[in-house]
Recover the amino acids of this structure.
């Protein structure tokens, strides 16, 4: 285990910006020729509308763009928060979805790394400034000027329009933010890798987890089940912490070596100083101090779940006495996401999914909130209604 493994070099070519043309905002794109494509979609028209059929106008592809015919799009819990306005004011209509898998329909004249028919994916990012320190290091998710999310974000490089996501039949994305999905992966089950997969892979690779290391995973939902699979493939001994004895069997089936009932003080005491890295996927407030006691010297706990309220205080003494690290991690850069996809193909890793139709989307959202999913929902975009003759967004 080596903390601070460098990320792969960025895949995209950085923009060349002279002193005269440098600007805090991305420069305007050159005009594209043709008319926007109308695509069928599902999205929200207000915080209380639920998901309804919509038609979205996809921009005319520019020379660096890839037009993608979407086959599947994963449903992330963040989609629920966004469409229901639980993360602040949104711009409606809003089409969610940032776990996109499909086939290339066409490419711009400057695109030489993708061709029609290629199986590709788009994750949580569709652009960044491409020139700050983070972007040049392949850390586009930490873009110092603000990255451009796949939906719900103003896209300065494309006229300031609000990005619209993958609950749709097509999308147009700059080639630098398109990923090659290995044909060995089932496309529906691969879709959640573009969020849940990279979110758990990145901190494990940052600490260069390898054979002989012990990895703890708190929670066994969409993120947690991916953390178990990926850590096991890296050669780690995997320990799952759960508050539910009902999840013991499922954890073992996923590849966990041990399962600890976290509400059992005696079981937690037995794990003292036994773990190198903990991946915390729980998105509800919970006390971290018992988990710090399970870490060895130089161990780390990565917070991936984002609770809606404050967490109980962390004891500084727990960190100081063993030189522990308490860190966060946000998805991954484009190059690292490609590395993750290739790793998953090599090891036969995909998400456990339930494929749903467009008409089941609202039910799926309610089931996600209730925790009734094992472990991720994926939308089959072939079930979307035909696009209308006029765009809603």
């Amino acid at each position: 285990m080596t903390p601070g493994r460098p990320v792969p070099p960025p895949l995209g070519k950085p923009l060349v910006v002279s002193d005269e043309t440098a600007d805090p905002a991305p420069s305007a794109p050159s005009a594209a020729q043709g008319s926007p494509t109308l695509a069928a979609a599902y999205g929200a028209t207000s915080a209380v509308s639920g998901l309804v059929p919509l038609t979205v106008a996809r921009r005319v592809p520019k020379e660096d763009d890839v037009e993608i015919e979407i086959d599947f799009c994963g449903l992330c819990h963040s989609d629920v928060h966004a469409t229901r306005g639980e993360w602040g004011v949104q711009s409606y209509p809003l089409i969610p979805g940032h776990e996109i898998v499909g086939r290339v329909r066409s490419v711009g004249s400057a695109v030489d790394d993708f061709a029609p028919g290629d199986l590709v994916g788009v994750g949580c990012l569709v652009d960044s400034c491409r020139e700050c320190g983070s972007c040049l290091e392949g850390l586009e998710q930490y873009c110092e000027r603000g990255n451009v999310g796949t939906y719900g974000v103003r896209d300065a490089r494309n006229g300031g329009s609000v990005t619209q996501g993958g609950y749709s039949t097509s999308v147009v994305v700059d080639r630098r933010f398109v990923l090659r999905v290995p044909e060995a992966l089932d496309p529906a089950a691969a879709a959640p890798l573009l969020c849940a997969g990279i979110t758990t892979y990145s901190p494990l690779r940052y600490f260069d987890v390898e054979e002989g290391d012990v990895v703890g995973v708190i929670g066994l939902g969409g993120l947690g089940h991916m953390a178990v699979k990926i850590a096991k493939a890296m050669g780690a001994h995997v320990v799952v912490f759960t508050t539910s004895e009902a999840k013991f069997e499922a954890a073992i089936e996923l590849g966990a070596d041990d399962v600890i009932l976290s509400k059992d003080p005696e079981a937690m005491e037995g794990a003292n100083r036994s773990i190198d890295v903990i991946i915390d996927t729980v998105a509800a407030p919970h006390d971290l101090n018992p988990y710090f006691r399970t870490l060895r010297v130089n161990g780390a706990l990565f917070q991936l779940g984002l609770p809606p309220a404050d967490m109980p205080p962390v004891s500084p003494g727990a960190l100081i006495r063993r030189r522990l690290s308490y860190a966060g991690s946000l998805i991954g850069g484009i190059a690292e996401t490609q590395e993750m996809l290739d790793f998953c193909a090599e090891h036969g890793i995909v998400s456990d999914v339930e494929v749903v139709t467009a008409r089941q989307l609202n039910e799926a959202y309610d089931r996600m909130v209730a925790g009734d999913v094992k472990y991720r929902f994926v939308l089959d975009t072939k079930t979307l209604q035909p696009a209308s003759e006029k765009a809603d967004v």
